[in-house]
Specification:
binds flavin mononucleotide
Length: 449
């Protein structure tokens, strides 16, 4: 008889035991001081999800930047210097004290950097020179030199050492979300002719070097995972065309296919990576990674907040302001819709063909959907973002076979407002009054001892 895991079963990877099969996914927000040191609001925010009675097995941090130059966006946390360790450690301990595990996610947005104080060339650093109509504020990305690539690998290794020094339970490198490593993996953004571009093996080289350096920095006994996008869907958000185009059309419109990313997964296993965290799409936000309605109003707000940074950012904001929201939903909302367990099928492919423990991400809120994914062997763990932001007690309700009175509606206003406004649920329809909505946002930052 095959064993069907329960949502509230423990699960262990490389010596780290999670008390349930559900993790809080990365949720980035303005919770640091201007220099990137985490502020008390960050500790309070994370601790709220960690309460024992809420049953969240572990928390994956926001993408914490490894590059000192990045302001991405303002008041997001960084780990590019030793001075960031002590405040991070304090928050990590506060989460762990509640029996919840804490994994720090490291990344660098590279050419997808969306915000800065003033425009700076480093925010366009990427695999190659490309004009991207949607992501990043720089008019055009700029190819990294070999010295810059070596320095970047060093940044990841140094930050990894700091994660361990901060006492976290584990570390995750993001090779997803269209961030720098993903820009090297994706054939539409990597047009290099040197050892870091061209073949699948060469496009993987940066991730290979980062994985080796990180493993060396933290040791074999430290939990280390990689967040990977199973399929790039390059044309989404529609119509995200990059200039100049690349040949063949599949590289341009699709990007990495599942067979290629499974190969990445197998290589990562050989490099002693402990788990894979699977989503899909290329860029944040995108309809495959954050399935739900087209967030027209939120995208407009964000585009307006960075329009001063470049001609591209200005044109993008002007277009989004000109197109009425209902028309934008039809024209630009292609592919945006809620899909339960959106990436569980991909997660299953990794679990079967790579053989590492797999976290599935995107579109989990109902008990049946989660149990179905676990029961069918599609994943070992589930990561939840928006539904936990809407209802941090979601799992407590599920354990009692109840549903939240006001579930997450997948409106994605939280995703699109988080870089500009305090993190929280901005779906006014979920609250009796506007004051209640605002109170919920402000309460997240309150000390919850
Ligand atoms: C407010 C907000 C901030 C996010 N910040 C990050 C981030 O810093 N790093 C990351 O990898 N994903 C980030 N995400 C994506 C989530 O981790 C998750 O993949 C996405 O919301 C889909 O999961 P869901 O359907 O459970 O919400 C963010 C999502 C939201 C809603």
């Amino acid at each position: 008889m095959t064993y069907t895991p329960d949502l509230f079963d423990e699960f262990a990877i490389n010596g780290v035991t999670f008390r349930s099969r559900v993790l809080r996914s990365s949720l980035g927000g303005r919770m640091a001081y201007y220099d990137g040191t985490v502020a008390p609001v960050w500790k309070n925010f994370e601790r709220r999800f960690a309460r024992p009675e809420f049953h969240v097995g572990g928390i994956i941090s926001a993408t914490i930047d490894v590059d000192a130059k990045r302001v991405s966006p303002l008041e997001y946390p960084k780990l590019s210097d030793d001075r960031f360790i002590a405040p991070l450690a304090e928050g990590v301990r506060a989460v762990q004290a509640q029996g919840c595990r804490y994994i720090v996610q490291l990344g660098d947005p590279g050419g997808h950097t969306q915000a800065s104080l003033l425009s700076q060339e480093e925010d366009g650093k990427s695999a190659s020179a490309v004009i991207d109509g949607y992501y990043g504020y720089r008019n055009r990305t700029s190819p990294m030199s070999l010295d810059e690539i070596a320095a970047e690998v060093g940044n990841f290794a140094a930050a990894a050492r700091r994660v361990r020094a901060a006492g976290a339970d584990g570390l995750e490198v993001t090779a997803s979300k269209g961030y720098l490593i993903h820009q090297f993996l994706n054939p539409a953004t990597n047009r290099r002719a040197d050892a870091y571009g061209g073949s699948v093996e060469n496009r993987f080289r940066l991730l290979r070097e980062v994985a080796i350096a990180v493993r060396q920095a933290v040791g074999r006994d430290f939990l280390f995972g990689v967040r990977l996008s199973a399929v790039d869907h390059n044309w989404l958000p529609f119509p995200n065309l990059r200039w100049p185009p690349v040949w063949p059309p599949r590289d341009y419109f699709v990007g990495n296919t599942l067979s290629t990313t499974l190969q990445y997964g197998r290589w990562l296993k050989e490099l002693a990576v402990d788990y894979l965290h699977i989503d899909s799409g290329f860029g944040f936000v995108n309809p495959k990674g954050s399935p739900g309605d087209y967030p027209a109003e939120g995208l407009r707000l964000f585009a307006n907040s960075v329009r001063h940074l470049s001609a591209k950012a200005q044109i993008r904001a002007t277009l989004l302001n000109l197109i009425p929201a209902p028309i934008a939903k039809v024209l630009l909302g292609v592919g945006w819709r809620y899909v339960p367990a959106a990436n569980a099928g991909y997660a299953r492919a990794f679990r079967e063909h790579v053989g590492l423990p797999v976290i599935a991400n995107g579109g989990f809120q109902e008990r049946e959907v989660m149990e179905g994914a676990l029961g069918r062997g599609e994943c070992d763990l589930i990561a939840i973002g928006r539904p936990l932001l809407a209802n941090p007690n979601l799992l407590a309700l599920i354990k009692e076979y109840k549903k939240p009175a006001k579930p997450c509606t997948w409106c994605s206003l939280c995703c699109t407002r988080t870089a500009v406004l305090p993190i929280g649920c901005y779906d006014r329809s979920r609250f009796p009054t506007q004051d209640d909505m605002e109170d919920q946002i402000m309460r997240f930052s309150a000390d919850s001892t």
